[in-house]
Amino acid sequence: MKILVCITNVPDTTAKIAFTDGDTQLNKAGITYITGPYDDYALSRAVELKEQLGGTITVLNVGLSDSDPVIRKCLAIGADDAIRINVEPTDSFFVAEQIAQVAKQENYDLILMGRESIDFNSGIVHGLVGELLGIPSISPVMKLEIEGTVAKMTREIEGGKEDIEAHLPLVLGCQEPIAEWKIAGMRGIMSARTKPIKVLEPTGQVTTTTELYTLPAPKGAVKMIAAEEAESLIDLLRNEAKVI
Amino acid sequence: MALTESNTSIKGGEFLIKDIDASHIFIPEEFSEEQQMIAQTCLDFLRTEVHPRLDEIDYAKDNSLMVSLLDKAGELGLLGTAVPEEYGGFGMDFNTSLLVAEAVGAGHSFSVALSADTGIGTLPILYYGTEEQKHKYLPLLASGEWKASYCLTEPDSGSDANSGKTKAVLSEDGQHYIINGQKMWITNGGFADLFIVFAKIDNDKSLTAFIVEKSFGGITMNAEERKMGIKGSSTRQVFFNDCKVPIENMLYTREGGFKIAVNILNIGRIKLASAVIGASKQVTSQAVNYANERKQFGTSISNFGAIKHKIAEMHARTFASESACYRAGQNIDDATVDLLASGMDSAQAKLKAVEQFAIECAIMKVHGSEVLDYVVDEGVQIYGGMGFSAEAPMDRAYRDSRINRIFEGTNEINRLLSVGTIVKRAMKGELNLMPAAMAVGKEIMAIPDFGVEEEEGILVKEKKVVKNMKKAILMIAGAALQKYMAAFEKEQELIMNLADMLIETYIAESTLLRVEKLIGVRGEAACSLQQDAAMVYLHAAVNKTANAGREAIMSFAEGDELRVMLMGLKRFTKIEPLNLKEARRRLADAAIEKGGYIF
After folding, report:
1. Within an 8 Å CB–CB cutoff, is residue B76 touching chain A?
2. pLDDT by residue (tens digit) across B261-279?
3. Which residue of A has its CA nearest to B88?
4. Choosing among B42, B43, B75, B76, which should be mutated to test the A contact, i.e. which has the most A CBs within 10 A?
5. Touching check for B449 and chain A: CB below 8 Å?
6. Which value, to the nearest 10 degrees, does the dihedral of the CA atoms of residues B91, B93, B95, B101 take?
7. CA A6 to mean position of chain CA atoms
8. Which domains does chain B possess?
9. pLDDT tens by residue, B163-180
């Protein structure tokens, strides 16, 4: 089993987001970076599959050298080697192109990634990679078993779940509970020292530019109204919120 | 870390008479990516395995949950960080093992179980065991397959550890020692597979240590102790009834046990100091969050100055303790490297290095545990009524903190030890204290330095304040020693005062040096909060030093000597006024904005 796991280097979930340079850049001061939480689950499942079936895991990140600590953590968790495409990940298509470029040369059985990143949350890179490679892509996958050359998956759909079978190779967008979340052990951390990170230059052109970032409006205050006081709810909706 | 000549030449306790260059101390901001990853592993482990189960751990009917947590920690390699690779561990240096202790420090009872297992349970074998003993036991302990405990204390032998009554007698065939006696407050007792037991052979005056496997038989236990805090850690009375220990399981030498106990406790003390830093950071974060969420008078209580004061103090004291802890840790690592280079074997070098810094270890233990007690106390206060409720985390934090001032040598014993060791080293000529004390004696008789020729540089004035604090200690210690001579050690109240001065001076100096070094790397603008923390701490340290000094002087000096020394103390504890309220507000505001501990 030859697995590629694509990971994002994203601000910690508790980071305070602010912008600089006329709201065109993220203010990185004081921000801790982590592996995208959904990507973490993809990697964890890859590690479990490798334990079960053997094979190799390569981690791929599109990002500058500030991604290296997060990449090394993935190596510590169980990836064998890593590839970093040395460019700022500006938009989904550009990132998908970079991944596809590497994947075309390597014949991976599985390309796993999170269902979406948690900074841009576009959630389309797996689909784009699948199209660029001409192989199926499925997301969000919550369960994944491999039997021979067939992947048996459970996918979340609107209002329920869907069981799917598909032949490898595949691109999958993953989410919990696809695997047990893994912590890097001491042995892994020590061995990550010697695992290689190959740095490749990007191909293709960045076609998008960011004009402006804005933060979502702060959430309004919430009022709790007990179920038995439905009348006061109607009163509030009618007279205070003026929506009915 | 890079080793410089001046680095290695720093001896334990020497901070009192030597100016240390900021470039020669280690600061936590210098931890490598790998070290940070190790710490993150510990934090991840607490977050996923321990914190969701704190109640379950504390009120468990048996030890199975704690054992399974230690097993999981063992699988991750967290029990073998300090054990060399040849014995199945990871051979991390001393400062990394302190960082690990800090990172698991917020684990409440689990943290205590882990540190007893990896510290006092494992280290006696690592440092004093024969090759056979190390190869036999360390891999089992480093992997977590076996759990360890340490049996020193007895019902009538606590701080006076060498007075234990447990006996070991050679069997008739000369193949075993038969151990009989009773041990108390044995952490991990309920599930340990291995006990480090201290006993006296025949009518020896001093203790001998033994490695005792549970399977040797003759070991019984009382029920779990009911305790104020750390309720989930196993604490038992352990009885040895004709426990047969093979002679090859004697550890180190006959009557060498007390030395083991003392040296292992040195390590335990500074490790405790780093563990309580981890707990202090967590409690501070929780308190800041709560203060942000809790609304009274129409606003978050974190907007009130009285609360900001507490949040800032929690930060300043924790930051200060951390600064000194890793400074001392690196001194120990550097001294180890130095001793290794002189041809000493690895275990001996590490032990000797820790022994050299026994004063700093004692200082750190006292300071760290008292900072955590302050932090949890204010944590409860910030939570208000909820702080008193067992539903909120402060209840457990408050109760669990208290033991830290008692175990690994009470804070009183450690205060006595810190001053006592300095005096002992001065008497032996290892620490050149007398010329420095005499110079101070001369200085107080001379015209005061009005400080007209100020040097330029980062924190120069503040470092001069610390230098003067050192002079105050030398002045009082010198005069007291002259007066009491050999009876000095009986003046415990005076020694407590001197210890307080010593602790405040070491911590304040470490904090300033850390900030100075950090400014050198990041620039002044990026370190303004660290500078605020250092200034808040320094002012408090000067006040404490002045108060303790005054108490000390008044306890033994009279007439002219009393007046001259009080004047000298006033001169040595002078500090320029600073608007500390504003400094504290800046610290608190940053924490409130972040929603947690900021450094």
Report:
1. yes
2. 999 999 999 999 999 999 9
3. A187
4. B76
5. no
6. 10
7. 7
8. 28-147 (1.10.540.10), 149-257 (2.40.110.10), 262-413 (1.20.140.10), 429-594 (1.20.140.10)
9. 999 999 999 999 999 999
Distance CA B237, CA B163 (A): 18
Predicted confidence at residue A219, as pLDDT, reads: 79
Ramachandran quadrant class, A116 (left: phi over 0; alpha: psi -120 to 50; beta: rest)? beta
> In this complex, which of B34, B76, B80 lies closest to A183 when CB atoms are compared?
B76
| A72, A102 Cβ separation under 8 angstroms | no
The interface predicted TM-score of the complex, written ipTM, equals 0.87
Query: Residue B2 has what pLDDT?
Result: 40
* Beta-sheet strand order (sheet of A150-157): A160-167, A150-157, A137-147, A170-174, A110-114, A2-6, A56-62, A81-85, A197-200
Does B102 qualify as catalytic in the annotation? no
CATH classification at residue A93: 3.40.50.620
Q: Is B77 on the interface with A (CB under 8 A)?
A: yes
Q: At residue B453, does pLDDT exceed 90? A: no
Question: pLDDT class for B598, splitting at 50, 70, 90?
Answer: very high
Contact B368, B272 (CB under 8 A): yes
Give the integer Cα–Cα distance in Å for B486 and B481.
Answer: 8
Domain containing A179 equals 2-217
DSSP, res A217: P
B503-517 mean pLDDT: 98
| Partners of A112 in the β-ladder | A5, A172
Q: Please give the residue of chain A at the shortest CA–CA distance from B598.
A: A30
B436 Cβ contact list (under 8 Å, min separation 6): B16, B17, B474
Q: How far apart are CA B198 and CA B208, in angstroms?
A: 6
Is B37 in Cβ contact with A184 (below 8 Å)? Answer: yes
Does any domain span residue A179?
Answer: yes
